[in-house]
Amino acid sequence: MDKKEFRKQAHQMVDWMADYLETKDSFHVSPKINPGEIYHQIPEMAPEEGEDYDAIFKDFKDIILPGMTHWQHPSFFGYFPANNSEPSILAEMLTATLGAQCMSWITSPAATELEERVLEWMRDAKGICSTWKGVIQDTASTATLSAILAARERACSYSINENGYSGREKFRVYSSEHVHSSIDKALKISGIGQSNLVRIAVDKTYAMRPADLEKAIQEDIINGFTPLCVVSALGTTSSTAIDPIKRIGEICQMYNIWHHIDAAFAGTALFLPECQWMIEGHETADSYVFNPHKWMFTNFDCSVLYLKNPHFLVNTFSLTPEYLKSNMDAEVNNYRDWGIQLGRRFRALKLWFVLRSYGLIGIRAKLRHHLALAKTLIMEMEAHHDIEILAPVPLNTICFRYNPTSRYTLDELNYINEKWMNLVNQSGRVFFTHTKLEGKFAIRWVIGQTDVEDFHIKEAWNLLLHKLPDAKPYVKEK
Ligand SMILES: *Cc1c(COP(=O)(O)O)cnc(C)c1O
Question: Coiled coil where (predicted)?
Answer without folding.
Answer: none
